Amino acid sequence: MTSPAQPSSGYIVAILGATGLVGTQLMQILEERQFPVKQLKPLASQRTAGSLINFMGEEIRVEEATPEAFEGVDIVLASAGGSVSEALVPEAVKRGCVVIDNTSCFRMTEGVPLVVAGVNDADLEHHQGIIANPNCSTSQLMPVFKALNDAFGLERAIVSTYQSVSGAGKEGMDELIDTTRSVFKMMGEPEVGARSEAVPAEFKVFARPIAFNLVAQIDQFVEGGPEDGYTKEETKVIHESRKILHQPDLKITCTAIRVPVMVGHSESVTLEFKKPVSPEAAMFVLEQTPDVVVARKPQDFPTPVEVTGKDPVYVGRIRRDTSNPEHGLNLWIVADNLRIGAALNAVRLAEVLVKHNWLKPKQPINA
Ligand SMILES: NC(=O)c1ccc[n+]([C@@H]2O[C@H](COP(=O)([O-])OP(=O)(O)OC[C@H]3O[C@@H](n4cnc5c(N)ncnc54)[C@H](OP(=O)(O)O)[C@@H]3O)[C@@H](O)[C@H]2O)c1
Fold first, then answer.
1. Could you tell me the sign of the dihedral formed by the alpha carbons of 292, 296, 299, 300, in that order?
2. CA distance 11 to 35
3. Over 50: is that where the pLDDT of 4 sits?
4. CATH numbers and ranges of domains, the chain
5. How far apart are CA 159 and CA 149, in angstroms?
């Protein structure tokens, strides 16, 4: 292993899931934002342990994620899936680390702050070792909801998502490429007649073939109870939004759709406010909101391809809800799900902890 060029002071940062899509972005964003990393510890499964990753121009060997791997680590940025976090995050906390977790494992746990940077940073102060990063579809809504809520009093939100395949990790991106190739291959074969027959036979990440298609299922379906028939992804947007905005009674509903887009989640949102609102007033508010970019002209609507690799949340198509013209608005909200939806937010949360000297929990840990 070659030693990375490291600053003399700073933090020992472990990336749990370093070989994944979010892990790769995390390392890129730590570099871009010059986070004070004294030593980087890339952790992944046994499958990729021993491989080399590049950080700050140096090659670092990936280690297997074990409880002992967290000894001496200050900050863990975790993105290796919910079951891995469930097993390893408490081990890291026991060893004195603060963990910013990208999975859904602890998001709704009492005492675990669920935070979008710039929206509810103050919630970080009383963490007990674990901080949760929201679902990617929730994160990009929050700066917009918070600003409009403060100005006009948000009463109800109807959200429809158009989520890219990268939200399902590297296997999701591979499946879009493979199924697209397979459609083209089948269309080129003489025995394939009607175009509708040209669908790939094999798919495993998504519930239907994703190439040239839409899939109205992200995560598992809820069975029974008041949310019967929703997907877990949809319930995450609902419950996480309420927790982040501190509005447990917010009326919010969601339909989540997977679309054949590589990176970038898009959301069609209808909002209802207590106070009267106009597109002009909403645009004015959002233009003053950090991390939000407003497209004033309808034809300047953002697209996932255009926002990929960019930090802000882009909002366009801001117009009256003609079924509720005094109090309702329709918006189109697009952002890079791997950045604001995951890695960028995690690094920004670490920056807030460092800035306020909040890295160590203020309360005893019950882990
Ligand atoms: N993609 C998004 O937009 C997004 C947004 C917000 C949150 N998240 C969440 O972040 C997590 C990771 O997402 P991703 O898109 O980066 O997935 P991914 O590309 O599939 O990467 C998964 C990572 O987890 C590692 N891993 C898997 N099993 C492991 C184990 N048993 N022990 C240690 N490491 C293990 C993998 O290592 P190997 O290479 O060794 O298999 C890889 O580094 C998920 O929980 C996801 O829900 C994703």
1. negative
2. 9
3. no
4. 11-133+343-356 (3.40.50.720), 138-170+206-337 (3.30.360.10)
5. 16
CB 42 within 8 A of CB 65: no
* Model pLDDT, residue 289: 98
pTM of the model: 0.93
- For residues 353 and 130, give the distance between their C-alpha atoms in angstroms, rounded to a whole number: 12
Relative to beta strand 98-101, strand 130-132 is parallel
Distance CA(253)–CA(256), nearest Å, equals 10
Tokens of 130: 């674990």
Q: Taking a C-beta distance cutoff of 8 angstroms, is the pair 102, 84 a contact?
A: no
- Which residues, judged by CB distance below 6 Å to any ligand atom, belong to the binding site of ligand 1? 17-23, 44-45, 47-48, 65, 79-82, 84, 102-103, 136, 166-167, 169-171, 337-338, 341-342
3-state secondary structure of 268: strand
Q: What is the pLDDT of residue 363?
A: 58
